[in-house]
Amino acid sequence: MTPSTVVLVLTLLLGIQPVTTDLYLPALPDLATSLNAPMSAAQLTLSALIICFGVAQLAWGPLSDRFGRRPILLTGLALYTVAGLGAALSPSIAWLVGWRALQGVGMAASVACGRSIVRDLYEPREGARVMSRALGGLGLLAMLSPLLGGWIAQHANWHAALGAVSVFGAVTLAVVALRFQESLHRRNARATELRHVAGNWQRILANPTFIAWTALQCATWGGLFTMLASSSFVFIEVMGTSQLAYGAVLAGSSAAYIAGTFVCRFMLRDGDASRAVRFGALFTLAGGLLLAGLSLAGVRSVWAMALPFMVYNVGHGIHQPCGQAGAVSPFPDSAGTAASLSGFAMMATAFVIGIVLGRVMNGTVFPLTLGVGGFSVCVAVIAWTLVRKHGDRRVPGPRVQVA
Fold first, then answer.
1. For the CA atoms of 72, 75, 80, 81, what is the dihedral angle to 10 degrees?
2. Contact between residue 121 and residue 398 where contact means Cβ atoms under 8 Å apart
3. For residue 372, what pLDDT is reported?
4. 183 found inside a domain
5. How far is the C-alpha of 346 from the C-alpha of 371, rounded, in Å?
6. Are 54 and 109 in contact (CB under 8 A)?
7. What does the buried/exposed string (b/e) look like for 122-151 if buried means 16 or more CB atoms within 10 Å of the residue's CB?
8. 140 within 8 A of 259, measured Cβ to Cβ
9. DSSP assignment string, 79-130
10. What is the pLDDT of residue 168?
11. Please, are residues 217 and 38 in contact by the beta-carbon 8 Å criterion?
12. Residue-level pLDDT at 400
């Protein structure tokens, strides 16, 4: 595989997550009305997807260490595509939640293997640079998804929006089948043995570098997920924004995220990933506190929400490439398992947030703004303490050279 092929495959594999969530968000209020479901039930279509996505990674990671990335990707993407079609044709909210949960299981294979591929092919610092390129492509998908979703929701319906998600899965499956070559050069025959899995989990969870980077990922993702899970109701129902305009707000946030990945790539030329995220925390903290402060001051406008989101997402674009590469960097022989544990921690965070939001959403902007503000403080504290102390642990030499 050429480097451009690796980046293309990674972009699709990692980009499947924002496509799955962001593309249908503008249609979420219409979905709730069409299926005669309360807001909490409609949000469950996102929460169920996220928790199944998180739990399934715990299985897909060791399986990919045992059998290789390619067969796991083909299986998971086929399941994702079929479940997406089932979701688009769902006749009730119960069926929709079930199909979305199954879609989360398939999506887990894509993301867990995508993070593992980086460790298969690159040493940690170069892996972070490659990850920043792939996540820049992810940001482009995340920018286009809500715009397309808003257009579909305004001119068609939620069935069409979820159908578009299934089409993306089919395209990704085709690219992997035709272009991706196996990246794992030494399979671990014991990777799926329960005793071996438990031992790997214990070793990984006790590693301070893994803890530092995973905590950073959970905190920065927590703020973003708070926005994703609540912003459609806040912008469309509380503030009266159109579906297409709301899609534009999400697209602007994704553009800021792309800018953050470029900043990350630039900083990694001359410095370590720990230094990059300490700088990124300044953006995260500024965006979160500005958002919370404006809402508490009674400022109610789209720009008072959108601009702080963009500042926050610049920091997010710096944290995610470094965090995803850093969490698996100490484990070249069990990258799949490390990636799955890191991913599970992030999705468990999102699931808890989804439950809390379902209970505290009260027709105001405060659950969103104060939630993002709180997570921004957590990101800054973790970046300036845990990551600064434990984050820069290099593993010498690339394991595989990519032609």
1. 140
2. yes
3. 95
4. no
5. 16
6. no
7. bbbbebbbbbbbbbbbbbbbbbbbbbbbbe
8. no
9. HHHHHHHHHHT-SSHHHHHHHHHHHHHHHHHHHHHHHHHHHHHS-HHHHHHH
10. 95
11. no
12. 33
Q: Looking up tokens 């593993």, which residue turns up? A: 395
Mean pLDDT per block of 10 residues along the chain (403 residues) reads: 88 90 81 81 82 88 90 96 94 92 94 86 76 81 82 84 93 95 85 85 92 95 88 84 81 87 84 88 97 92 91 94 85 81 86 83 88 96 94 45 30
Domain count, the chain: 1
Query: By three-state DSSP, how is residue 403 classified?
Result: coil
Token pair for residue 84?
Answer: 């997406």
Q: What is the CATH number of the domain that holds 72?
A: 1.20.1250.20
Structural contact between residues 384 and 285, judged by C-beta atoms closer than 8 angstroms: no
CA distance 136 to 10: 11
Distance CA 397, CA 125 (A): 10
**Per-residue confidence (pLDDT) for residue 392, from 0 to 100:** 67
Through-space distance between the first and last CA atoms of the chain, rounded to whole angstroms? 7
Three-point CA angle 282, 288, 289, nearest 5°:
90
| CA dist., res. 208 & res. 124, Å (int) | 16
Ramachandran angles phi, psi of 206, nearest 5°: -90, -5
Question: Which H or E run contains 381?
Answer: helix 366-382
With beta carbons less than 8 A apart as the criterion, state whether 317 and 307 touch.
no
Alpha-carbon distance of 202 to 134, in angstroms, equals 30
Query: Which two structure tokens, joined as six digits, stand for 343?
Result: 């991913």
Q: Which helix (H) or strand (E) holds 146?
A: helix 124-155
Report yes or no on 395 lying in a domain: no
Here the tokens at position 287 are 């965006």
Q: State which amino acid sits at residue 22.
A: D
Q: Where are the alpha helices (DSSP H) in 297-365?
A: 302-328, 335-360
Question: Is 297 contained in some domain?
Answer: yes
Tokens matching residue 292: 């919370």
Is 184 inside a domain boundary? no
Kindly state the tokens that stand for 22.
Answer: 């962001």
Structural domain boundaries enclosing 126 = 3-178+195-390
Q: What does the alpha-carbon distance between residue 375 and residue 13 come to, in Å, rounded to a whole number?
A: 26
